[in-house]
Amino acid sequence: MQKIYVLSEEDTKQLLEMDEVIEAIENVYREKSSGSGKVFPLVFHEFKRSVADMDIKSGTLDEMRVYGLKLVSWFGDNPSKGLPALSGIVMLFDKNTGLPLGTINAEHMTGMRTGAAGAIGAKYLARKNSEVMLMVGAGHQASYQIRAIQTVIKGIKKVLVYDPMKFESAERFVDRFDYKSDGIEYIPVKDLETAVRSSDIIVTATPSRKPMIMKEWVKKGTHFSCMGSDMSGKQEIDENILKVARLFADDIPQSISVGELEMGIKNGAITQEDIICEIGDVLIGKCDGRTSDDEITVFDSTGIGLQDIAAGYMAIMKAKKNNMGIEVEF
Amino acid sequence: MQKIYVLSEEDTKQLLEMDEVIEAIENVYREKSSGSGKVFPLVFHEFKRSVADMDIKSGTLDEMRVYGLKLVSWFGDNPSKGLPALSGIVMLFDKNTGLPLGTINAEHMTGMRTGAAGAIGAKYLARKNSEVMLMVGAGHQASYQIRAIQTVIKGIKKVLVYDPMKFESAERFVDRFDYKSDGIEYIPVKDLETAVRSSDIIVTATPSRKPMIMKEWVKKGTHFSCMGSDMSGKQEIDENILKVARLFADDIPQSISVGELEMGIKNGAITQEDIICEIGDVLIGKCDGRTSDDEITVFDSTGIGLQDIAAGYMAIMKAKKNNMGIEVEF
To answer: What distance in Å separates residue A76's CA from the closest CA in chain B?
Structure first.
């Protein structure tokens, strides 16, 4: 009799460790660049314009021996009924046999894999002596980004938190942030320009549709991990920054159509040829990341389904090893 | 805390009743023809040519208030390892909230919904006074087809079973068929031509790649439900039958690309304009089915993902009502 794992959000919180997720996502980028990781065509359906939609992202990680999909639904009216607007579910299959491995709640896992992506951008592209991180956006994703960055950048001394809507959100975020690390100061900030001027690593995770960070404020050697833009029309940083920066993406076609690089290309500030390469190409040594301490680097992370497949697979492997989660006859 | 249902193959065997599945699949065809049922683009990936592949079929049934997907994997080397070559899993979501409803083993359910489809073809297109059914193919699917036909065609007196590979398979099938009905004779047959000449309803469910049934053998008023062709190149009946028959499909574009009608169109025996309509159009009264007792009718059923969504949804609703299956925190 066949069995599958069913992992709840609570299970994923217990099973997933940030350093391990970062390692898994690095492998995803490597597989994508070497060709063993393949992204299948996206399925998207809008039930009601700007109110309810769903998408199915799927793909295979042939080295990891797993394939699968994530279905994410967004129902904008849900919060008024006391339900979450966003929900997601991952399904995984054994690449050796095609048999189902399990079903995983995608909510916490998506936060983890997105945090990992931002940190991988910083790990491979930021200056080695980076000390100050600026988190732009104090929402749900900020916590994952900070956890991940302090996992990979050991020299971090200060984390500045800025909220584009109101200062109180940044204050409250810092108060409640559960993963404070010894030797790091966490500081809510009111003035974005001053914060940008003093930062080595800037992570943006907002739903912004117009640039918040101006080129004049950015010091030499700054690294940006731009996490917020995942839909056409979104933009977080001044396209003049893109003009002078070394540009990297998780998936070039997706960055051009929905990522941070989209508006820069549409407005003519940059062209597709200005994108150095995908981050996976840096990881496998096919392309250079940062080449000097003076350069500004930008990693445009739009998110790919393979990240969910890898994170979910790790959760199932750990559940099996530690006898956690629920295994159900199928 | 959110919960989802997980229904195993065993659960679906206990939960699904053929008459109810038939009703659900009729509603699928109605929704498809009225426009409230929508099929999303197919995702297909071949891991290794002719050895291993997977597809994701998805869609929404807006009237039924459910959407979802079925992922089916085919790993041809599995039987040599003692594993099933084909495996599938269905995931369903509440159309009102986007929240996941459950995960269902698709194996038995696919048999049921395919049986239901063949029977709906007969119910709406065969002569009302049909008495003899011929089942061509004595494989896994034959049992579901016969169960479904005897559910909807009350006048059936004889079921002939023919296996294109060997007679013994037909004999063994009849011996082991678990759903024998009082007043019906079940007869394995050796000679296909004689069987065709005496049959009112012919259901084909084989992997054939060349026509098995010739036009000269077919008597006036015969109905065909062609279930076997679901891949380019497959063909079960002589294309000269298509020339003189009233033709119906579950999904016209799919029939033309992979169904029984494909080869007839490719060989020039018929054109796309010869297809009367989709079966759903008959069910909603938009188009006439059979118009006289002399006509030959053909229903080309290629299978659509919406059938799995409807059958799975019924299984979950019944599990909830009867307190069956497993409900898991998610």
So the answer is: 9
